[in-house]
Amino acid sequence: MRELDGSNAGGQFLRSALTLSVLEDVPIRIENVRGDRPTPGLAHQHLAVLETMAEVCDATVSGAELGAETIEFDPDGAGADGLAGGSYAVDIGTAGSVTLLFDALLPLATVLEAPLSVTATGGTDVEWSPPLDYFRLVKLPLLARHGLVASCEVDRRGFYPDGGGRVTLRVAPSSLEPLALERRGELAGVRLYSTESASLADRDVAHRQLEGALERLDLAMDDGDEDAGLPILERQERSAESHSPGSALVIRIDHGTGVAGFGALGERGKPAERVGEDAADAANRFLEGRGSVDTHMGDQLLVFLALAGGRVGIPRVTDHVEGSRKLLAAFGIETVLERTAEDVVVSLADDRGNDTP
């Protein structure tokens, strides 16, 4: 059994450890779960991930209760034998993040024997997790370019505090190709996705978010032509049914080798225009650099890098990236950072000589 210490980590450590346990067919014991959080131990969304992974993998688990600070998880050979797939339903409770649950499940595509469907009820656009449109319109398309077969169907949005969103993730058996994301390709254009709960439609929140983003975005091309600019490839404004009022905006930047995404959430008392500006500020910082993916995606791709190999250019090394690298190392998967003046390239230690474009 692999002994892991979560005293300096949060929920991402737990989720990735469970995923790697299945993929590497190694039982794990995690002590000090979410030890660096004000309220350590399993909260609703972490318990939901643990229970769902156990059900999908028919794993043996101990410590599956709210507040638990030590858990054990034994996949019982599920990764080595292949997962049977099937259909599952999970109620995370309150506004626990649906997208974080799905993040833990996606890599299982590489060991599935048949399609997997998971319908989750909880928060779709909540703090400290990727907005739903980032997950389904940025992450899934990027991974699809490298062989992942998955889709996401939205029945209802779930904003804080009531949650109650309902989303179905469908994943098919997939063979991943090496991540060819070392260099950013030629910029192609921008897509904007702005969503409001139906209760905010009379205030034009979705439209105002989008306009705020467009006002702030730096769409000038780097070719010296003052009249040239990045084209708007898509702009969507949606009013969605939800148990709680709320809003979200996601900006996606397309380039020759991939996509990058940036999101912001509405808050009580925060002007809708400011939500769009916040997302645009993050997008502008990306445009000023040379990374192939955004900062958050850089961390989320490390498990897929471990599975498929390749090279990924990230804007910078965050605490989450370092934490993920240490976790991979605990499973015997070493990564290498190659720093340049413009970005950082991440690869597997035994992949440094590959010539992935």
- How many whole angstroms does the radius of gyration measure? 20 Å
Mean pLDDT: 94
**CATH architecture annotation name of the largest domain:** Alpha-beta prism
Q: How many helices in DSSP terms?
A: 10
Strand content: 25-35%
- Give me the strand/helix succession: EHEHEEHEHEHEEEEHEEEHHHEHEE
Structural class by SSE content: alpha/beta
Q: Mind telling me the CATH superfamily name of the largest domain?
A: RNA 3'-terminal phosphate cyclase domain
CATH topology-level name of the largest domain: UDP-n-acetylglucosamine1-carboxyvinyl-transferase, Chain
The residue ranges in which pLDDT falls below 50 over 5 or more consecutive positions are 223-227, 352-357
> Helicity level, as a percent range?
25-40%
Strand order of the largest sheet: 1-2-4-3
Main sheet attributes: strand count, strand direction, barrel closure? 4 strands, mixed
Subcellular location: Cytoplasm
Domain RNA 3'-terminal phosphate cyclase insert: 183-287
Catalytic activity: a 3'-end 3'-phospho-ribonucleotide-RNA + ATP = a 3'-end 2',3'-cyclophospho-ribonucleotide-RNA + AMP + diphosphate
Organism: Natronococcus occultus SP4
